[in-house]
Design brief:
Layout: E1 5-7, H1 11-17, E2 30-33, E3 38-43, E4 52-58, E5 74-76, H2 87-92, E6 94-99, E7 101-105, E8 114-119, E9 125-133, E10 139-147, E11 158-160, H3 168-172, H4 179-185, E12 194-198
Parallel strand pairs: 4-10, 5-10
Antiparallel strand pairs: 1-2, 1-7, 3-4, 6-9, 7-8, 8-12, 9-10, 10-11
Length: 218
């Protein structure tokens, strides 16, 4: 799964990677992004429009659920195209969620021991996401996850679906709606690019801080 991540790279740099304009108000660096908060996401409004950086609520609940449906933060890649709750968004409303890394916890560790997982070269990541209009008119999103790969699987059996550079444009393209076509055109990054290390248990409580010390090796 992916239940916490960090984003501290400048959004202008990330937006340029996919031909999107940077937002006027630069978001502050966040080292402990938690569900149920506003996060930066990139989506393409229409086939003729350029991608844009938008704020989305990290919690996916379609407008048609009328405020009573579940509000998942993740969607499994194995079922996102067929699950009734997600399939419309997968076909028509895909987004990228930029991050510099994410946190996972080893199961059954006491106290819960967090690990920070990122690229070995410290390059930013783009998580595959889906989004929907919520009942209040805002946008809400979920991060697509896949089975853990490479060293990330040593920490948790699930991880975000991290797209390689050649897949970013295809993932955003609103005119590509067929499941099999998306599957053929989209690739995840090489698992050998990923590494991890243990960090402070202060990560376990987002209210305790958002400083860069959270990603330092414990």
């Amino acid at each position: 799964m992916c239940g916490r991540f960090a984003l501290f790279s400048p959004l202008e740099r990330l937006a340029n990677r996919v031909g999107a304009s940077a937002p006027e108000n630069t978001l502050r660096p966040r080292y402990n992004v938690a569900p149920g908060t506003w996060i930066a996401a990139i989506h393409q409004p229409s086939e003729d429009a350029a991608p844009i950086v938008d704020e989305m609520w990290w919690g996916y609940r379609p407008k048609w659920a009328k405020g009573s449906g579940n509000q998942p933060i993740n969607a499994r890649v194995e079922t996102v195209a067929t699950n009734a709750y997600f399939k419309s968004a997968f076909a028509k409303h895909r987004c990228l969620i930029p991050a510099d890394g994410w946190y996972e916890w080893v199961k059954n560790s006491k106290p819960k021991q967090p690990y920070f997982i990122c690229r070995k070269d410290r390059e930013p990541l783009f998580f595959a996401g889906i989004f929907t209009e919520r009942d209040d008119g805002s946008l809400g999103c979920a991060i697509v996850t896949e089975p853990g790969r490479g060293s990330a699987a040593e920490v948790h059996d699930r991880m975000p679906l991290i797209l390689d550079d050649d897949s970013l444009e295809h993932w955003l393209a609103p005119d590509i709606t067929d499941h099999e076509t998306i599957k053929q055109m989209v690739r995840h990054i090489d698992a050998d690019l990923i590494e991890y290390w243990p960090v402070s248990t202060a990560v376990n409580k987002p209210a305790e801080g958002q400083g860069d010390e959270l990603i330092n090796p414990a």
